[in-house]
Amino acid sequence: MSRIKIMFGHAGVSLMALAAVVAFVAMLWGAPLWCWALVPLGVAAQMLNEYNLHRHVFHLAPPKRQWAFDLLYRAHYGHHDFPTNHGLFFVPLWVALPMLVGNFLLVWGIVALLGFEASIWIATAIVPLGGVLTFLGYEWFHMTAHLTVPKTAVERHVTRLHNQHHFRDFNKWFHVSPGGEIIDRAMGTDINTEALKQQQRIAFIRTLGMRPDDPRLLAARARFAGKYGLSEAEVARAARG
């Protein structure tokens, strides 16, 4: 299965791609030329958003209530639990869409309050164009990091760093997009080469520190196994760690 088919077979990715296309066409149709210079601002904002969402939301302490745990499991815990499952590679639609709408309205509102007449075009350049294109790049590189496929030098670099997050220390290397490691280094969540040589693989790394047979994990696996094609053997193996 090709990477394009895997990626755009996910509803959230397809919808976000459509939003970027609509934004691009709309900008061509009516945006002042200078607004295009703001697209890189959307790229930078999304890079920060990617880091903060991954570190501070997706790696929240496991909720005690099962319904809340299930939400977090689908959003991210499940991806660590089954890192090669294609269905769990991508940000869910119910996370991506509210963030797109919320960020757009936030930027539009702030810029309008500041008195810019082209506020809607400024918000369009920053969020559904620059931001969403960066989001799609993240989804591509993240997916590629988990697939055994021929990779470019940049993709191999991303894979090497992301593997450290999954299989060495889940509290490090939160960024995935190329260049994002600058943010990890600035925030102190990188692993330098010498430290990596000494660092041992932490216990229960695939379950983000939880015991693999935690009742919340067992319930979440049972709930999502059918949807994501997890076999009984895979679920049983995950419970053993």
Automatic annotation (TrEMBL):
For whether the record's keyword set contains Kinase, the answer is no
Q: Which organism does this record belong to? A: Sulfitobacter faviae
Which residues does the UniProt record annotate as the domain Fatty acid hydroxylase? 41-189
Task: Name the UniProt key words of this record, in alphabetical order.
Answer: Membrane, Transmembrane, Transmembrane helix
Q: Return the protein name.
A: Fatty acid hydroxylase
Q: What residue ranges are annotated as transmembrane?
A: 12-39, 89-113, 120-141
Note the InterPro entries from the entry.
Fatty_acid_hydroxylase
Q: Decide whether keyword Ribonucleoprotein is in the record.
A: no
